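[Solved] Which block belongs to which protein?

Original post:
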Amino acid sequence: MDQLYAELPEIDCKGLCHESCNAIAMTPLERERIQQRGIDISPLHMPCPALTPAAAGPRCRDRWPSVTAYDGITYVIPCGGRKLGQPAAARDLYTGSMFRHTLDNAKRSARLDTEATGRPARVLILSALHGLVELDTVLAPYDLRMDSPGSVTAARLAEQATALGIEWGAEVYALLPRPYLARLDDALRSLNVWVQDVYEACAGIGQQKRTNAHIGRGPVPVFVEPEGPGPTVEGEQARRTAVHDRVLHRRAWEIDAAQGDDPRWTPQPWDGARIAAGPGSGRQGFIIRRCTDGCEQVDGQPRWELLLAGGGPIWTCLTRQHLRPAPTVRREGFGRAACDYDCRCCVRRRQPTTAGTPASR
């Protein structure tokens, strides 16, 4: 450190700013060196006790920290559990899909920030073992979580943050899970830096990924009116109708190709039915009634509510295109079966016979 300070140019201090000079952030090692001169500096002490009026000059110039603040935005992302089997740059060492997704979008957001503000922006990785590391830092594989013994301490993170120019007023945005965020927050609060939790409203990894994609997408471009006359109302309506028809026809073809249908069937209450398309494809249950949510106003097609076998849940807004009839068991005196048991014995599953045609069992 003495060699580093020796490379600094001499400053002809006039001593004119003594009364308004405040202490800057420093690492514990630098603070210890200054304390050897009998000076104890508080981060918010004003004026700085290490300075004296102009006649005396600086009392510990040769031991004063020389950290340069980073005048930009810092994004901090977590390390990943999956890693390469050999040492590599931090950006390449972690191979998990969540890490790659977070890194790509954070880098994209940093680039957009620089383009919008002209200020620098960077991405740091918070490693459970190594602490704050830059993307090009070469690391060896390791296996450690932030909540495990031996993980990086808040004091060590504070030292690294100071060395990286993170001090009071720095903009730090954390895309971190809770254990990592808590450790980083403890470290930066000692430097009077308040971390912005990007994932504050996220309930899980799915919402975190959507947040990543949102910050990486950047602002929506402003719509510019084209020059010259635009399309007529009739022409635009005809175009949208044609697109809508093509989508419906293709979707109907996909449904028909996936499962057969009985075109004579119109869903009635307590008819057995199964979902033939969409995220609930293959689930079976009973028609309850026509949907009453007002969704038929979208395109004029009727929709139904389906109670899944086994006591629910209820799927709503299902069009006829998405439903197929399913054989049910008839019970004496009860009409078509509707029960709360999870055995599903009241819904017969269709299976192909040896001849390749559907059959019930």
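(Second protein starts here: sequence line, then its structure tokens.)
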Amino acid sequence: MAGGGIVSEPWYTDDVNELADGDLEAARYATVHLSDPTEYSYKLVETVRQSETLEDPSETIDRGLRVELAYLIDSNEVTFSRVKYDIRYTIPPPGWISEQNYDKRDLVSYGKPGIEWVDRDAKSIGTTTPRVCKDMIDQAIEENAVDSISDLIQRGLERMIGHRETPNKSSNEEYTRDPKPKSHEEYPIVTLFKGKAYYGVTDFTIQQADSLPTRWYRMGDLTEKVGCSTTALSNIQDEIIGYGLLERSNSTEDAAMPRYRIPDSLTVQLLREFHINYTPKKDPYVSDDISDISLTELMGYTGRTRLIAWFLADADEDIAYSKNKITDNSSLGHNTVREYIENLVKLGIVDTEEVSRGSQTYTVYTVNTESPINIFLSQLNNAAFAHRSVEEFAFEKLGLV
């Protein structure tokens, strides 16, 4: 490899060997941490280190975060791209992630060699990474694609040992409409509050004081209302229209410069109805110490939203799940489940029960099908998918798909 940057066996090696350090952005000047490590975290890092034959935990964490950044970009979970940051091989290039066959590996046990580096008194496991990677992580957090640096690192490490599904899809593929969600990750309640552009449009829809449908906006005026860039909103406009949050003018006068408005769709009606009329005081399942619930605040944390969606989409209402069982049956990490599950109990979204096994007692969780919040979110999902299915039918009739 040309130059002296710190990159271990990166990506397509033959191509990388022809590049200089400027292309690689290889120098690692930014410090990041996997905070509050648990027994699971230690085992996860060591399992990836051994499977990838990496030198130490620091190198392992750096590799994991670069892999996850590439995944976020290639799966369109963030609005930025490699082009924006003018990088080529700092993170895996387009298509690399989908080509990997990460076999599912069991976590190593402490009896195996190599895990003696664990310091259980440490408050974090640190590493250094290129400054541009830290900038991308910060933007991914700002867009609510991940909850934290630790969340991103853990997801990347889990992906590298087959504990997360990696669709065979590149960022160059066009958005396709599927009338039914395949899993909680594809539910509208995950999508509609994920990222600055989605979140901004949804929040604007909820807060909009005008009668429905609203007046027409040019794209520039709408982005000012929403609080995101024109590029970010343009990139997701078809999806937002598909879910019924926006309507595009079909007037020939607007062909060159389209106008948009918030329609009087069922999706919008439900969002507005919940915002205006729901109050925790009337919800018998919500904890007494919760006096107010803002929908955008409730769904504004990606980890909590994904956990709620898992209970609605994938959890069996007749099965009680421990925290470990939730992690085993979902794409959610231990830290995410641990951080948000008790909050879902206070919100009445899930019920709890204490069970005993031998001398041990632990808590299990079941979805509360009577919760007004759950009922509303299920209705919102159905409305958004129904609207998208109608859009698909109309597009097919017009020969546009």
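Accepted answer:
You had them paired correctly. Confirming on the second one: The beta strands are 30-35, 124-129, 217-218, 247-248, 259-261, 350-357, 360-367.
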